[in-house]
Amino acid sequence: MLKWLVEIRGGRSQYKVAQEIGIAQSTYASIEVGSRHPSVNMAKKISKAMNFDWTRFFEDENTEVE
Questions:
Q1: Contact present, 37 and 61 (Cβ < 8 Å)
Q2: pTM for the full model?
Q3: N or C: more exposed end of the chain, with fewer CB within 10 A?
Q4: 3-55 has which fold?
């Protein structure tokens, strides 16, 4: 599970975020739980909608991000 992504999403629903970026809620949910990895294009869309650096999806999850 990408806990950092859930935290960034805050109180917004998965459906709302998915709708903003033009994907199915189930696709977004799969990315959030870690069963699916986003393409670079998808990572950019998600990060733009939630205002964070898209490369975070591709960092080692054990690496601390400031």
A1: no
A2: 0.83
A3: C
A4: 434 Repressor (Amino-terminal Domain) (1.10.260)
